[in-house]
Amino acid sequence: MASYAKMIAAGKRWDKLFILVGLSSMLVGLITLSALIIDLAIDGVPRLSLNFFTSFPSRFPEEAGILSAWVGTSLVMLVTALSAVPLGIAAGIYLEEYSRKNWLTDFIEINIANLAGVPSIIYGLMALGLFVYQLHLGQSILTAGLTLALLILPMVIMATREAIRSVPTAMREAAYAVGSNKWEVVKDHVLPYSTGGILTGVIIGLSRAIGETAPLITIGALTFIAFLPKSLMDPFTVMPIQMFNWVSRPQEAFHFNAAAAGLVLMAMTLAMNGLAFYIRFRFRKKIKW
Fold it and tell me: Does the pLDDT at position 163 exceed 70?
């Protein structure tokens, strides 16, 4: 009995040590992130104004704004969402509900998982050869949106499959028992109960895409643009590239502009992630087993 008591006591000590190490690691990350955000806010908050959002970039830092950058980011993300979300969800539903389990589907699943970890610059190089040179779409918003859609497509597919897998098998069996066919089971039971997880994965994927720079630079995104695009085939810039342009300049005033743009981009990203958690909470709350 004494040996068991010693083992239990030793296990509790290791548990406390693990909790202490984990808490310390979390605090280090939070403190570092807080320090970076505070430093960014000190430099950038004074530049935030209506004029900053409605002005084009300028060689005069006091007059420069992010109008073309946030409009370009919004259009690129719109093309990305319209391209990746329907295709990714449809692919996830097919692979999880309709495809036969054989070597081909296993091969596809392995490659989808591998594509989720490919560096973003590789997608930029592929898009440069395919969309710009082969399909002649040019260095346009459409090219940028399709490039980022390819980047987040594996994430959307994997999120959709994981959400569908979380639906209990008993729900499917009950639907089949009352005479539902395959599509009715998927449409009326599987998708409604997995929508929260699917949307969470979609928004997290879009949150990653909104901050990507390397693939867009590769396909020829502009670092300075003083006009608004009139169609999806026009040149563009996005907020991360605009920030890079300002940071690379020697004048300190441009660095303050970059800090302000960084705050705006961070707010957009946090808002998208917050929306993901809210949607997930609401859908889970509506589910009644």
Answer: yes
d(CA 65, CA 260): 10
Three-state DSSP class for residue 168: coil
Q: Is 179 exposed, middle or buried (0-12, 13-18, 19+ CB in 10 A)?
A: exposed
Do 13 and 150 sit in the same domain of this protein?
A: no
Side-chain-side CA neighbours of residue 22 (13 Å): 6
Q: Which has more pLDDT, 286 or 234? A: 234
Q: Which runs of E-coded beta strand occur in the chain?
A: none
User: What CATH number does residue 144 fall under?
Assistant: 1.10.3720.10
Helix axes 239-247, 67-93, angle to 10 degrees: 140
For residues 169 and 244, membership in a common domain is answered with: yes
pLDDT of 288 higher than 60: no
Task: Tell me which residue range forms the domain holding 96.
Answer: 51-286
Structure tokens at 19: 């909790």
CB atoms within 10 A of CB 218: 19
Burial of 176 from C-beta contacts in 10 A (0-12 / 13-18 / 19+): middle
Q: Which residue has the tokens 């084009």?
A: 56
Nearest to 58 by CA among 245, 213, 235: 245
Q: Mean pLDDT, the chain, as a whole number?
A: 84
